Amino acid sequence: MRFYNYLKTHLLIEGGNAISTSVRINAQNVTATLQSVYNAIFPALRITKNDIRLLGSAGKKPSPSGDLDIAVSTQALILNNNLETFEDVYTFLEDKLKTISNKVIVMKGLGTVSVEWPIANTDNLQDKSFCQVDFMLADSLDWMEFKNWSPKETESKYKGAHRNILMSALAKYPNYKELRKEGDTAVEWEKVVISIKGIVKNVESNLGKSGKIVKNKTVLNSTIITNDPQKAAELMLGPKAKVADFNSFESLYKIIMSNDFIWKQYRDDMLKDTAHGIHSCGLPVPTELEGYL
Question: Residue 28 is part of a domain; what is its CATH number?
Fold first, then answer.
């Protein structure tokens, strides 16, 4: 259950439906709307197009998008605006975005600031409508693009979220280690997760202060292994891996099912976790995984 909650929080929803007045933006309106966003935020935040990266599926598929996800370089914001701390970045973003949007919501736990933005009505179907734009703070733009990659419609019949959930299971199983047990129950363990910071190794425990097992886990220690996409690919698939192997659910699944897959002993567990994770997030389960539910 903890794994599925993690998927919903970190790999699927990003900003979620933070702006209640927003609607899905039609594909024909994405380009002009993005340009209006860039025209406003570049001078306001003192950044350039080199300091951002468009994430997700917006503009890649003919179907409407739930929101527009834009990664923003934390380093650029700090250097260009004489900021000192991460807290300063959130305060600066909130203050500046409130001058160009009527609704701004800060979600520090997700590293995201969501705003209401008027849709450029290119297709004449969304007059006076608003979409949600999520500004996602990034230590590495390359990492955020890799973590939140979504394939084009011609490249996959599934969403980027399907790929992300499979990727999370791929990182989890080979690197899970029980560190302490009470009877047959693990009370402290080490595992690898995919986060906005990169591939991260966590030491976690479900022991409370009283020494009794509690429902909610505690992260005792967290170490960033890498935020380099190529190194992350090699960690998950071995030294021959390429970033392109992670282009879609199908490309990853093909490797996992191949005879050359280096983690064959975890294959069934990975696919079972992926099937249940996708189902728990309310997404259609790929036909390739129907036998694992």
Answer: 3.30.460.10
